[in-house]
Design goal:
Number of strands: 3
Strand order of the largest sheet: 1-3-2
Strand content: under 5%
Radius of gyration: 39 Å
Number of helices: 6
Oligomer: single chain
CATH topology of one domain: Multidrug-efflux Transporter Regulator, Chain: A, Domain 2
Shape: elongated
Length: 185
């Protein structure tokens, strides 16, 4: 019998830690490399080793780990896998064609356009309010009999100033009296 080398597809790992792990001891990582390759923290990987979920991983007397790729794949960690997109794409936006260059100011332009639409809506609302007030004024003028002078405008009286001592009395501590006196000035 001849021993033919077995081809192992490392990209098809199972999520179950109890699944058989292919012998891939030739590809190993230290703790920092495994953490960087998988995006999992070093502390989490060392906890997985302490929990026994990395059965082929070894730790020497100096504390350095040797982690075979098979252990990482058995736990569902994908070394050097592409990360998911940073932000989800807008479902209503059409996908960008390849080779399309987006101008760097396009986001700012979209924001300015949205602001402009908002200001236009506000201006239209204010115009409607002004028109309704003008109609109300015209109706009020028509309701007055001709020749009568308009009612007099009553001026507001100036507010009277009251000393702080009269408001607070003498029972408040000095800092409250001083603060109240500053407020009333």
């Amino acid at each position: 019998m001849t021993d033919t080398p077995q081809v192992v597809d490392l990209t098809k790992a199972t999520d179950s830690p109890a699944a058989p792990v292919p012998d891939t001891r030739s590809v190993t990582f230290n703790l920092a490399e495994a953490s960087e390759a998988t995006g999992i923290s070093k502390r989490t990987l060392s906890r997985r080793f302490q929990e026994g979920k990395l059965p082929n991983t070894s730790q020497d007397q100096s504390g350095a780990y040797t982690i075979p790729i098979g252990d990482l794949l058995a736990l569902g960690y994908r070394p050097h896998a592409p990360s998911p997109p940073d932000a989800p794409l807008d479902a209503g936006a059409p996908p960008l064609a390849t080779g399309v260059t987006v101008h760097p100011d396009s986001e700012e332009l979209a924001r300015v356009r949205a602001d402009l639409a908002n200001w236009r809506a506000r201006a239209e609302e204010r115009e409607r309010v002004i028109e309704s007030l003008q109609e109300a004024l015209a109706m009020a003028k028509r309701a007055l009999p001709p020749g009568d002078p308009p009612p007099p405008v009553i001026a507001a009286e100036p507010a009277q100033t009251v000393p702080a001592q009269a408001v607070l009395g003498t029972r408040a501590p000095w800092w409250r009296r001083r603060r109240a006196a500053q407020w009333l000035e």
